[in-house]
Amino acid sequence: MLVAIDTSTDIASLALVEDRLTLAELTWRSGRNHTIQLLPNLAHLLKLVGKDASSLTGVIIAKGPGSFNGLRVGISAAKGLAFSLNIPIVGVSSLEVEAYQYAVTGLPVCPVFNAGRGEIATALYQNQTTGWRQLGDERITTVEQLCVEIQGKTLFCGEYVPTISSQLVSRLAEKAVIASPTTDLRRAAYLAELGMIKIAAGETDNVATLQPVYLRRLSITVAKNR
Fold it and tell me: Which residues of the chain carry a pLDDT beneath 50?
């Protein structure tokens, strides 16, 4: 049984998956409470399916980009499980998880996270004849610059999209397809599916070296006096 963990943003999600079937899933607005909510909610899901942590055979973790605190909590928990149970760990892009549930549309899918300072974190994905593909690098940019780069009809998703939807529609008109806020949650079951693809391809991570992906460097001030 695999566990998928996503604490990338204010929305947190957990899923337990076995034989490609989702046994249990929980998605909730955690805010900044990942530290106190994550492990109790995992224990709750394990209890729902009548199993304990010893039944886990792998850990799939959303590795960012996202919030510094949220990612640290999720990756620390995932590493702890992988190390203590001696099971494989796989990191998956949080932006890719956001986009993946819209793969069936066939459109280019552009997930958008709030990166602060008037900027966004984004990338572009599409389900093509050759399979699910990332079309460009994950990056920090602005809404204005992103709109300049969009060439055709594109689906925008992410919990930050409702905040910028008017800008997207104003600049892109019919090229902007806005995902409904009622469906726009990162679900850990999609994270699990992406992780299983990586596991099948032998693309597991090293529990010691797996790190969060922030895209933006931490802000560190330089002392005035050396």
Answer: 220-222, 224
- The whole-angstrom separation of Cα 40 and Cα 58 is 19
* Strand 125-128 versus strand 131-134 pairing type: antiparallel
User: Domain 102-178 in CATH: superfamily?
Assistant: ATPase, nucleotide binding domain (3.30.420.40)
Compute how many other C-beta atoms are within 10 angstroms of the C-beta atom of residue 13. 26
87 in Cβ contact with 95 (< 8 Å): no
Closest CA to 188 of 72, 32, 27, 52: 27
First CA to last CA distance, the chain: 53
**Paired strand residues for 154:** 176
CATH 3.30.420.40 fits 2-93+186-200, yes or no: yes
Question: Residue 45 in contact with residue 74, Cβ under 8 Å?
Answer: no
Element housing 86 (H / E): none
Distance CA(33)–CA(25), nearest Å, equals: 18
Can you give the residue ranges of every domain in the chain?
2-93+186-200, 102-178
* pLDDT at residue number 217: 56
Asked if 108 contacts 126 with a C-beta cutoff of 8 angstroms, the reply is yes
Q: Which two tokens stand for residue 77?
A: 């928990």
- Which among 88, 79, 97 is positioned nearest to 6, based on CA atoms? 97
pLDDT of residue 221: 46
pLDDT of 87: 97
Q: Is 0.85 surpassed by the pTM of this model?
A: yes
